[in-house]
Amino acid sequence: MSSSTLQQWLTIHSWASLASTLVLIVLFASGLPLIFKGELESLLGYGTEASSTATGDSSTSLDELLVSAQANFPGKAVHYIVWEEDTPDLVILNIGDTPTSHFSENVNVVMNQYSGELVESAPSPLQFFIDLHTTLTMGPFGYTLMGFVALLMLVALISGVVVYAPHMRRLEFGEVRSTSSRLRWLDLHNLIGMVTLGWALVVGGTGMINSWGEYILMSWRSGQLAETVADYQTIPPPSVEEFASLNTVVAAAQLALPDGELYYIASPGAFMSTAHHYSVFMRGNTARTKFLLHPVLVDARTAEVTAAPALPAYINALLLCQPLHFGNYGGMPLKILWAVFDILTIVLLGSGVYLWLDRRRPSRKDRGINNVQSI
Amino acid sequence: MYSRSNLKHIYAIPLVLLIMSVAGLSLALLGDKLWDKASWILLSLTCFALFLRPIRRLFHK
Question: What is the pTM of this model?
């Protein structure tokens, strides 16, 4: 590699890093509490009343749950009903102003599925961090912006690997020189960069894909989903009064996919469904398949299964990007390691800023020579 | 500018770390228990590389 090529890589590394550093520091700092979201929420008392108020074998029927939700939020539309693995007593209802409102404008409420009581209608105590981390509190535009920031991060990482070589020509891996503060931080920057490289590439790559997930899902909606329900194009969509019982809808979906585990239901009109169907998303019941989903499209009028198409590979890849970004798939030790890598990446970003600010400041030795020359 | 042996010398450990961390991140996705533990070990070893040089120096003293 010629020195001019190397200089070009250095320029790419500097500017890709500088353009994204401030946002990345905010993202990694706000991501830190989100690694322990479940633990922090229960520590702060969010949703814990739910588990204690009522538990048991017989759950309230889903239809009663919907009636209860509509009584608490009159005039609003339930978009999604979600069952989380770690809180089996609870269901999360995603509610919007209209049946087709954008999901970023919707609110989540937590209900006890045994008693049908509303447990939490307030947002999570970590909602600020969630908004900051996903959209920088900028709404839907924030998702797109985050994707570009993640792309810049990947460019900075790859160019960082290229410019690592000239620094390490005469050094052993991990050597940190202490002759000057700049050299010490340069060596630490290189060392931390190489240690966190794999994690940062995975988290940055999956973050970029997650940020642009809406576009990927839009392509699924206009492709596979539209083709599957093409016959419904000429039929007017059902009104809420015409909707079949949700219990019957779920029973039909479970009959169609008996090995699946109920994960969430998308109501007619919601982003993950059609105007004519409930989409019942089932997940696998093994460690290997629990992140992969299989939708069952159930006619909202008749509760008959229209289709249960396997999702295309690109949607499965998107689904796998979520655990790989959040680090919530390998127990507490993985979360702790995730936090360590996160903190190391913040140090990496901070040291990069320091090195850039310090780039033209003459070293103490040079200053000494200049002083002697001026005398 | 760089010979192949030079590049090998520079990138050998970073490449091993990259493989270890990507494998560590992937293994926990494949299953629970043993897979999780393998993932924790590989990722911990990757972090441990931060202290490779000071430890090596300690033994050389």
Answer: 0.86
